[in-house]
TrEMBL record:
Record keyword Glycoprotein present: no
GO molecular function terms attached to this record: DNA binding
Keywords of the record: DNA-binding, Transcription, Transcription regulation
Protein name stated in the entry: LacI family DNA-binding transcriptional regulator
SMART domains according to UniProt: HTH_LACI (SM00354)
Alphabetized InterPro entries for the sequence: HTH_LacI, Lambda_DNA-bd_dom_sf, Peripla_BP/Lac1_sug-bd_dom, Peripla_BP_I
SUPFAM superfamilies linked: lambda repressor-like DNA-binding domains (SSF47413), Periplasmic binding protein-like I (SSF53822)
Domain HTH lacI-type: from-to ranges: 4-58
Keyword ATP-binding: no
Organism: Flectobacillus rivi
């Protein structure tokens, strides 16, 4: 296949090569509509910038680092797809590391990325990360860093997140309006920003509808089956059994479904079940899962754009943003109202 050039794109769109070049770099001088048209044409013609030539010309590595808890988590794999789609079209390679929810591994990941002299770092913090000195040190030396999904307020930089509070509020309110009064919440690590935000939304919905908050109905857990079984058994040993479970993620909800079925608890007849993320398999399960859509692809794209703008110094004095992307509740069979 013949490789397209900037000249080919310019000819196809009747634009100057300099306009096309600036649009591909995401320059603020080019209006958004022109950027969109140029990027669509670049994809159609299979245009790919040459990172090696660009790195020699600009004295940069033309590579960005990405640190995520786990690649096999479909949310993070979708976010990485979004990151790569932006980076590739702007002439950057993506170097990916996994922390496996370990603070120590996250620190080593960051050290490796620094040694490889990447141009910037995108990171979603591990479940064990309680302080970010390793990131502060890198940031103080001028390394652009952007948080996505899981973040720390200790570093003044861009953050791209879902509206976790509103998503959890909407999900919990849906369960309440479905007649549920004893709603348990399975949360992730208490140190994570997403955990705090989703618990806040859950509490707010309970308060709005006059339902007392019960600490015994909130359980923190990891993604292991052993831990999940322990948590579920604790909930089932309560004096009053929950009539619904709202989990922090679809992965937890799937594990929860498996365990509840083993204990002969029917979903949704005996207990409603809801997740957060809206994985592709959510509608294929039996019963299909009610879930809150977390826009992973868009989150990755937006985070990559902000990072590359920092790398390319589009603004000498950037105003750092916390970009909050909207969520959406998708109602399916796992929370439907069962009538006799």
């Amino acid at each position: 296949m013949e490789i397209a050039t900037i000249k080919d794109i310019a000819k196809a769109l009747n634009l100057s090569t300099s306009t096309v070049s600036r649009a591909l770099r995401g320059s603020y001088e080019i209006n958004p509509e022109t950027k969109r048209i140029v990027l669509e044409c670049a994809e159609k013609l299979n245009y790919r910038p040459n990172p090696i030539a660009l790195s020699l010309k600009e004295n940069r590595s033309r590579a960005i680092g990405v640190v995520v808890p786990e690649i096999d988590n479909p949310f993070f794999s979708q976010a990485i797809n979004g990151i790569e789609s932006i980076a590739y079209n702007r002439g950057y390679h993506v170097v990916i590391f996994q922390s496996h929810e370990s603070y120590d591994r996250e620190v080593v990941n960051i050290q490796h990325l620094a040694s490889r002299r990447v141009d910037g770092v995108l990171i979603s913090l591990s479940g064990q990360t309680t302080h970010v000195e390793h990131l502060k040190e890198l940031h103080s030396k001028g390394m652009p860093i952007v948080f996505f999904d899981r973040f720390s307020d200790e570093i003044n930089t861009h953050k791209v997140v879902a509206d976790n509070y509103q998503g959890a509020f909407d999900g919990t309110e849906h369960l309440i309006k479905s007649g549920k009064k004893y709603i348990a919440h399975l949360a992730a690590s208490p140190t994570l920003s997403i955990t705090r935000e989703r618990i806040s939304g859950y509490q707010a919905a309970l308060e709005k509808h006059g339902i007392p908050y019960n600490e015994d109905f909130v359980k923190y857990c990891n993604f292991s089956i052993e831990d999940m079984e322990k948590v579920i058994d604790e909930l089932l040993s309560q004096p009053i059994l929950p009539d619904a479970i709202f989990t922090v993620s679809d992965r937890l909800a799937m594990a929860c479904l498996k365990i509840l079925k083993k204990r002969n608890i029917r979903i949704p007849e005996d207990m409603a079940l809801m997740g957060f993320t809206n994985l592709k398999v959510a509608e294929l399960l039996s019963p299909s899962f009610t879930s809150v859509i977390q826009p992973a692809l868009e989150m990755g794209q937006r985070a990559a754009e902000l990072l590359l703008d920092m790398v390319e110094k589009k603004s000498k004095n950037p105003v750092y943003q916390t970009v909050k992307l909207p969520t959406e509740l998708i109602i399916r069979d796992s929370t439907k109202i069962v009538t006799d």
